[in-house]
Design goal:
This protein has about 160 residues and is an alpha/beta fold. It is built from 5 helices and 9 strands, in the order αβαβββααβββαββ. The chain starts with a helix and ends with a strand.
Length: about 160
């Protein structure tokens, strides 16, 4: 099960105890916010995109949207999301539970600056009914992700 893989992966950072599983779905930003009990913006959604022969995961605040111009400037390609089948095959996680943890080798993780507004954020933990509470620093350390600016916030 993907949540157990994520919990095992997070052990090396001492974060495994923060994984929460819910009896309700957390597959969308809105559902995750309800399950966790926080504003939707604090949900750290993981978006998966084609990048060359592989993929890149962009972890962004729940209220942020990909800015196509910024994405192309950063990654030198158009933003094209993976299909559900591609996401599962390339990340090991099903849509709704795609997260930046316990990934196959070669998957690039980028963290959007939209997350840096918050002291605590909640990415998925490998299933459509899970989350893990982290600081931005803990997210960066546990994923090895690089900070990027590829999103826009609502006005």
């Amino acid at each position: 099960m993907s949540v157990e893989r994520v919990r095992e992966y997070l052990k090396q950072y001492g974060l495994e105890g923060r994984v929460k599983e819910f009896s309700v779905s957390s597959a969308t930003v809105e559902l995750a916010a309800q399950a966790v009990g926080v504003e939707a913006a604090r949900i750290a959604k993981t978006l998966s995109f084609h990048l060359g022969e592989g993929c890149v995961l962009v972890v962004a605040a729940g209220d942020a949207r990909i800015d196509n111009h910024k994405f192309k400037e950063t990654f030198h390609t158009k933003a094209k999301m993976l299909t559900a089948d591609e996401a599962l095959a390339m990340t090991g996680h099903a849509v709704g539970g795609v997260c930046p943890f316990a990934l196959p080798e070669g998957v690039r993780v980028c963290l959007d600056r939209s997350l840096q507004r918050f002291d605590a954020i909640y990415p998925a933990a490998g299933s459509a009914s899970s989350a893990v509470k982290l600081t931005c620093e803990e997210l960066q350390i546990s994923t090895g992700g690089e900070w990027v600016d590829v999103c826009k916030l609502p006005e």
